[in-house]
């Protein structure tokens, strides 16, 4: 399984902090497209992505057990 | 080493304790940056803020910024504490302390750090205005990241 984490506006849109899905072997790009359609989320394809707490790009191929976080533009400080 | 130089906390930040972490005999300068909650942004009045973070990754990214600083300014020692949760006007959201033998490094490294925090540390701010709420940095209103990842650091002025 792949664990997907949502933050900030996306977390409010999704209604939960995370979801587990069976999408190993998919690219990050494909997963984002799917999430956007499946859960009617907006702007997912424009977010940054972290896999296992490191930023990655949309071409990364998800492996079993990965935790992927969708990172909207950050606003700390 | 028992001290944590890079941390997130839900408690009010004790500025002096962040400064204490970087104090040392070799230092001739310590700069402190305190990011505080602003009441008015243009005409809009903020009532309070809520900071949310991907805590484990945020602490790791703060530490990565520490590594970047070490590379650029080898004689700097830094400590960063960022608060999360509900903050009110004038509360400190972040405190950054940098010590170095000479002041130039302490100033430059400190500014570099806050700049990088705003780029790569997964912390989000929700504004509670008089007339509604909004997540700051919402990707619907700002620059998207077409490759899905932020710029990698270094080579920056």
UniProtKB/TrEMBL annotation, chain A:
GO terms under biological process: Mo-molybdopterin cofactor biosynthetic process
Biochemical pathway: Cofactor biosynthesis; molybdopterin biosynthesis
Any single GO CC term annotated in Swiss-Prot or TrEMBL for this entry: molybdopterin adenylyltransferase complex
SUPFAM superfamilies according to UniProt: MoaD/ThiS (SSF54285)
PANTHER family (alphabetical): MOLYBDOPTERIN SYNTHASE SULFUR CARRIER SUBUNIT
UniProt family annotation: Belongs to the MoaD family.
Biological role stated in the UniProt entry: Involved in sulfur transfer in the conversion of molybdopterin precursor Z to molybdopterin.
Subunit composition and interactions: Heterotetramer of 2 MoaD subunits and 2 MoaE subunits. Forms a stable heterotetrameric complex of 2 MoaD and 2 MoeB during adenylation of MoaD by MoeB. During catalysis MoaD shuttles between the two heterotetrameric complexes.
Protein's name according to its UniProt entry: Molybdopterin synthase sulfur carrier subunit
TrEMBL record, chain B:
Span of the signal peptide: none
UniProt keyword Magnesium, yes or no: no
Gene Ontology MF terms in the entry: molybdopterin synthase activity
Record pathway: Cofactor biosynthesis; molybdopterin biosynthesis
InterPro entries: MoaE_sf, Mopterin_biosynth_MoaE
Reaction catalysis annotation: 2 [molybdopterin-synthase sulfur-carrier protein]-C-terminal-Gly-aminoethanethioate + cyclic pyranopterin phosphate + H2O = molybdopterin + 2 [molybdopterin-synthase sulfur-carrier protein]-C-terminal Gly-Gly + 2 H(+)
Taxonomy, superkingdom: Bacteria
Annotated EC: 2.8.1.12
SUPFAM superfamilies referenced in this protein's UniProt entry, alphabetically: Molybdopterin synthase subunit MoaE
Gene3D superfamilies xref list: Molybdopterin biosynthesis MoaE subunit
Entry keywords, A to Z: Molybdenum cofactor biosynthesis, Transferase
GO BP annotations, alphabetical order: Mo-molybdopterin cofactor biosynthetic process
Pfam families documented for this protein: MoaE (PF02391)
Protein purpose: Converts molybdopterin precursor Z into molybdopterin. This requires the incorporation of two sulfur atoms into precursor Z to generate a dithiolene group. The sulfur is provided by MoaD.
Family: Belongs to the MoaE family.
Subunit structure: Heterotetramer of 2 MoaD subunits and 2 MoaE subunits. Also stable as homodimer. The enzyme changes between these two forms during catalysis.
Protein name: Molybdopterin synthase catalytic subunit
Species: Salibacterium salarium
